[in-house]
Specification:
The chain has a single domain, classed as MazG-like (Helix Hairpins), CATH 1.10.287. Helix 1 packs across helix 3 and helix 2 packs antiparallel against helix 3. The chain contains 4 helices and no strands. By secondary structure, the chain is mainly alpha-helical.
């Protein structure tokens, strides 16, 4: 799922001698970096909401989405989280949790 982007980010970090060790200090740093990138993404979404989408905003949105993914992968690496296994486990739990809703009608709009 994310193995290819994760490898690219890991290789980039190694090439430019950026922090790659799994540590609480790096996890804290990358958590704050991720929060900052998500904030930048949210600001662009707000601009699109207010003024409509333009080609420039679409490009900026795409770039910020990539920044969010990179920061997320750095966070996962520093945290030593196997996201693919965690994702599969979580989907399994959600399927169990929502299994009773399979035959229910979709929620109506508010």
């Amino acid at each position: 799922m994310l193995s290819k982007p994760a490898k690219v980010v890991a290789d980039f970090n190694q090439e430019f001698n950026l922090p790659t060790e799994k540590s609480f200090e790096n996890m804290k740093f990358y958590t704050l970096e991720l929060a900052g990138e998500v904030g930048e993404l949210a600001n662009i979404v707000k601009k699109i909401w207010r003024s409509g989408q333009s080609e420039e905003l679409k490009e900026r949105l795409t770039e910020e989405a990539a920044d969010v993914l990179i920061s997320y992968l750095l966070f996962l690496n520093a945290s030593d989280i196997d996201i693919e296994t965690a994702f599969e486990d979580k989907i399994r739990k959600l399927r169990d949790k929502f299994a009773h809703r399979k035959n229910m009608e979709p929620m109506k709009e508010w």
